[in-house]
Amino acid sequence: MATVLGSMDSSIEWNEAESNSLADGNPYIGPDAVLKGVFTKLGENHEYFELQDVKIHGMEDDMVLATLRYDGKVKATGKTYNAQAAHLWKLSDEGKITSFQQYVDTKKLAEAEK
C-alpha cells in the first residue's frame, strides 16, 4: 500500500466510476483521501478484493490505460463478483500519478452489495 500511495502526486484527483458506491467522495483529492475513501472502504467491505488480468496500454500526453478485472467477495452479503474494469491514469513529468478515472461494470458491483 505504501508503494501505491507513494506513487501518487500530493494533489492527485481520483474519481471512482459513476454509480459505484465509492463515488460518493468524488473527487478524492490527495493520497490520504484515496486511502480513507477508497482503499480502506474496500478492505472493510470485502472478504477479498483482487485485480486480475491487468494489461497496460501506453497512450499519449502522459496518459496510461489499464484494462483489468476485479474479483471480490462482499462481506455483508457473501456475494462474489468478477467485473470488467478500466483505469485511466495521468502522470506528471516526474512519473507521479496526478489523476485517476475508474470505469467498471457498476451493475455487477451493485448486485453483489445487495
Can you describe this structure in just a few lines?
The chain has 114 residues and is an alpha+beta fold. Helix content is 25%, strand content 48%.
Explain this structure.
This protein is α+β, with helices and mostly antiparallel strands and 114 residues long. It has one domain (2-113): Nuclear Transport Factor 2, Chain: A. Helices cover 25% and strands 48% of the residues. It contains 3 helices and 6 strands; from the N terminus they run αββαββββα. A hairpin with a 4-residue loop joins strand 3 and strand 4. The longest helix has 15 residues, at 31-45. It is globular. The N and C termini lie far apart (28 Å). The mean pLDDT is 96.
Report on the biggest sheet: 6 strands, mixed
CATH architecture: Roll
Question: Which runs of at least 5 residues are low in confidence (pLDDT < 50)?
Answer: none
Helix content: 10-25%
- The structural domain count equals 1
Got a strand count? 6
Structural class, judged by helices and strands? alpha+beta
Strand arrangement in the largest pleated sheet: 2-1-6-5-4-3
* The CATH C-level class name: Alpha Beta
| Mean pLDDT across every amino acid position | 96
CATH topology: Nuclear Transport Factor 2, Chain: A
The ordered H/E elements are HEEHEEEEH
Question: Which descriptor suits the 3D outline?
Answer: globular
